[in-house]
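Hello again,

I reread your note about wanting to compare the complex against the isolated chains. To keep things tidy I'm splitting this into two emails, and this first one only covers the full assembly. Below are the input lines as submitted, including protein chains and any nucleic acid or small-molecule components. They are followed by the predicted structure of everything together. The single-chain runs will come separately.
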Amino acid sequence: MERYQQADPAAPGALVRALTPTLLRFFRNQPASRAHADDLVQETWMRIHRVRHTYRPGEPVLPWVYAIARRVRIDGYRRKRRIESYETAVDVLPDCPERPDCHHPLPQFDALVVALPESQREVVTMLKVRGLSLEEVARATSSTVGAVKQKAHRAYQRLRKLLEVSPESAP
Amino acid sequence: MDCIEMDRILIGTDDVEHLPIRAKDHLAGCQRCREFLTMLREAQRSETTPPEFVQHLEERMLEGLRPVQPMRQHYLFLGFAAVVVSVVGIAVLRIGAFALVAMSPFQTAAVLCALAGAAVLLADSVVRQMVPGSKHHVEPKILPFLILASLLILILLLFQFHHERHFWRNAWRCMQPGASIGMVAAVPFWYLLRQGAVLSPRVTGVSTGVLAGLVGASVLEIHCANLSAAHIVVSHLGLPLLGSVVGYAIGLGVELMERRAFGQKRD
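Full-complex prediction:
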């Protein structure tokens, strides 16, 4: 990241290759941003590029990146909701007509996490998908470690209940 | 050990190798926890990214890549502090410090220390909000209201209620210069905010609005010799509250503009 701030031409590539897969997963875990995950990843990198001077050398990179990604997701979600409110439903359309993988069942974690409230889903995704620490999640969400712990604990309780009733866990 | 305690451990780590022995023992005997752990670990699989997508991103980021100077948080904090001190100082010099004569030394010390402390906490919070991924000791959306509530309690403890004949007229007369001073402080605050990356304009707008309102309230606390608790609460503390509303509205406007720009880019 520091080399990126110093305009080392090799730095953007290294950053993009290291972080894009997890950013994609972060957006695909959220039902509201799943369909536009590629666009959102692109927008995240453009914002990172614009505000790269706000990264402080020596500080952890991941909370900084995820804080920006989180904002992009919120903006994308609100915009999508606004557009949907103007749209008129004319017929029942298939969910994703062209994609060959759309009728495959989601992996278990993704399928269960969708049922969580937004704030809990975000915390669990950051903790488990990218393996951020509690402190890093707190930084990325402008929150405190205590609040993150509480959300994660509630999310786990809910996930356990959902896991018990999910058909895949049935004997 | 029960499953709830197991959850607390799993929030920190789901690597079986790093689990404490009692957690491993519980895991060996609990089918539910084993299934839960498997599900959590499944989350870590990585997403495949098409190489041409990565290539495209790299190319876009290399366009116009120039060195940047990392932002210095301390300088920004000093910038906010300098604005607060200079605006309060100049305003008090111009309109006078009559309240310092009317208040007891204890009241003066308590009120000024509380206002200074509140301004420091808010300026620090605003600066942290300008740097993504900063550590917050108190959530930024709660802090302004905690500060306002604390100041309200302090005023109610320090001052007494007196009957006033023209309460609203006096309050309005007092608020007008206070609001103008707050607006004067808000202009350099806006310039300072533009140096960072504000991710939640509404939350930052509220914090900055309360800070600008506190500048006005501080001047009134030093200037206004009306020591009735009701007057101080309404016309002096009303300023940071008003500032929070204005800050929220400005933040909302900024958010809407950013969202529109984001949408246009995507379309």
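For quick reference: The longest helix of chain B spans residues 238-266.

B.
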